[in-house]
Structure formats: C-alpha cells, structure tokens
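Extended Data, panel c. Modelled sequence:
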Amino acid sequence: MLAVMLQMALMIAAGMLWQRLAPDHMSALAHRRALTDLVFYILLPALVLDILWQAPFDASTLSIALTALSRLTVAALCMWLTLQLLQRVMTVSRAQQGALMLAATFPNATYLGLPVTSEVLGDWTHEIVLKFDLFACTPVLLTLGMLMAQTYDQSEHKSHPVRELMRVPPLWALLLATVLNVGHIPQPVMISHALHTLAGGVVPLMLIALGMSIRWDTFKLKLIPLLLPVCVIGLLIAPLAAQHVAIALGLHGDQLTACILLAAMPTMVFGIVICERYRLDGALYAAAVFMSTLLSIGSLSLWFVILQP
C-alpha cells in the first residue's frame, strides 16, 4: 500500500510541477480548469455510465451509502465540537470555521479514492467508489454542505441546493444509469467500448488535476493548531466510526476495506470552489488539502494494514 501511495504521490507531484511549468499561453488556473472540466463533464459521467449501467443495485448499495453518510455525520459533529473548544483558547473567525467544517467533513472519495482503491484492490472497486460518492458524499455536499457554508457565509451570494444538484453531470449520468439498469436495457457493444475508452482517462487525469489544485504555498506553521484536528478527524476518527457502521451493516472482506479506505481519504479539493463562492477562508482550506493529502500517505497505508484479514 505504501508503494501505491508513493506512486500516486508521484502523479500528484507531476500535476503540481505542471502547475508551475505549463506553457504560458494561458494561466495555470485556466490549465487546471480545462483539465477538471474535461473530467467532470465528459470522462467521469462516462465512467458512471460504464460501471453503474450494469452494476447490481442490492442491499450492499444501501450499506455503502449509509457507511458514507455515517462518515460525514461523525466528521461534521467532531469538527463542530472541536471548534467550540478551540474558540475558548484562540480566535477563530467565521470564515475559518466554515472552511474547517467543510475540510473535515468531506473526503476526496473520487479524485483520490478511485485511483487508490483501484490500484490496491482492483478495478471492481470503481463501483464501490461511485456508490459511496454519488449516493452520499456529492448529494450531501451540494445540499447540506452548501447550507453549512451559507451559515458561515461572508458574502451576499446565496444559491439553492437543488439547483446546484441539477448542475452536476455525474449525477445526471447516475440517474440515466439507474434507469437503464433497473429497466434491464442491455449495453450495446459500440457504446460499451466508447464508455470504457473514455473512462480509462479518469484516473490519471484526476491525479494530475489533484496535483494542480494543491496549493502548498498556503501552508504555514501557525495554522497547524487549526489543521491538525481536521487531519485527525478526517483520517482517523471518522473512518473508525464508519468501520463500526459498515460492519454492523454486514459489509465484509474487500468491500469493507474499500469503503473504509474511501472514508479515510484526505480533504476533497472541490471545497475550495465552495470557499471562494461563500468567501470562506480559501487559503486555510487549501492548506488543509495539502496537509491531509500529505499525511494520508501514511494513514491510508496504516488503514490498509489494519483492514487486512
């Protein structure tokens, strides 16, 4: 597992290097947005259709979703309680509080979870990743997560959660895949090959995009008292709670391992966009992404060892 994480780190580092050395005919931000838009609007929906069109929707699907929800709930509650304690010993602005709540609650289940679980367990985990994310993490992020951000909002901008959900292509792909799956509509060979080819680009481009999104320059030693709780909660406490829930729901073996590895992923990158939209502390959030991703090299390796039978 450690070797796999180091391999992932090299690809992420390639993205960070590309952010610095990319041709200057367009800005580094434009390079990153072009790459992430390609993945978000074309490749990831193709992967969703490719996998979930024919995946079984059984009791384990509900178990996976409930495990993900338990991870989000425990992380949010622990971070909220931690903030109440931190405010007694130091000043934490509302913009910082909102950024820390988002950073602790939502794991990078797709952009990092998909390549990591695929590499250590096999491509069959794509189904687990998509169910974990699209049946729980993403809908919660774009509804309750948005409402959470609005409670700490430093701007006048307000958005309707349902409207935000309607703008997510992978969720539309999930809806279409569900209809085709439940309707027992066979997948034509030509479409299957096209979807599989497009889906093949998701993993490497996700890792490069992740590297391009990490802003290591935002990390400062004075932020450690704020960032450390995010890492402890997101990488250790919340996955531990998710493990107990998953076992109680009947998940076991490699399915259990995949779910807990996803629950133990570092802070998701997309939260930076939410921080910018609601004028939360984007630099602090970016620092949380950097620190949690760095520490996850060790913590995910530890989780993998613990979860082995």
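The mean pLDDT is 89. This feature is highlighted in the accompanying rendering.
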